[in-house]
Amino acid sequence: ADEAISCFHGSKTQYGFPRFLSLKEFKKRSNGYLHENSCTFGAEVFVIEPDKVKEESFTLIRYPQQNTFTLTIENWSTLGTDPQFIEFDCEKRKWKLLVYPKGDEAGNGKSLAVYLEVQRLTEKMQVYADFNLRVLDQLKGKHEEKQFERWLSASHPQVGDANFMPLKDLKKSKKGFVQNDTLVVEVQIRIVSGPGIAPSKPGPRVAPSKPGLGVAPLKLGLGIVPSKRGPRVAPSKPGPGVVPSQL
Q1: Residue 98 host element (H or E)
Q2: Nearest CA to 44 among 213, 220, 188, 226?
Q3: Taking the CA of residue 209 as centre, how many other CA atoms within 13 Å lie in the half-sphere pointing to its CB?
């Protein structure tokens, strides 16, 4: 296709067609490719400059050495609407595990709300986190657990669920979530990105409207190309490369 783009580099310095035109058609006088035993070849080249993109590298850390943190909430039945939380360090970052005992506005006060929040990020910093939030069943070990994964930033530092589990389930002692008026919530960080900035994404490349560098036609032998030429025959099986312009 005329809009095909080829990328030249150290290990790929040539593009073209192994079967551009059959020798039979090339030598046929009525096609006009040969005139007085001479022919002319040409190539038209458009150069596209790549976007200047700044990229930053980062590292994904799987199951950090210390990756499970526990919030034990006592006197559960006497708590109001204020969030309960613990702050902790993981892979050189500050984090906060938050629990809203009476739920928050997003859950209409009918569900336990649980969130993980990363702290002290600058405007351009982003952190990837893959983690589990769980409310422990202190009787049978059948914990209520959910998995999350997200890129976190200064403008969106928090992820979790406003409807983590119904508050009515916490009131049923046989379910084991609240024992001795105590609720236990954990976060387990499975994967986290190390310090750095998330890589930026390159923008689209746009072909120039006007040709860049041109290559003058290469003349072989003596003579000129006749002004009138016969029809050209397209190659039967083009190879990879840039389609040459019509001469």
Answers
A1: strand 93-100
A2: 213
A3: 0
Structural domain spans, the chain: 1-48+221-247, 60-193
What does DSSP assign to residue 30?
A: G
70 with 186: CB under 8 angstroms?
Answer: yes
Q: How far apart are CA 221 and CA 41, in angstroms?
A: 11
Architecture of domain 60-193: Sandwich (2.60)
Q: What is the pLDDT of residues 82-118, one digit of tens each?
A: 999 999 999 989 999 999 999 988 877 889 999 999 9
pTM of the complete model beyond 0.70: no
Question: Which of 92, 96, 53 is closest to 193 using CA atoms?
Answer: 92
What tens digit of pLDDT does each residue of 118-163 get?
Answer: 999 988 889 999 999 999 999 999 999 999 999 999 999 999 999 9
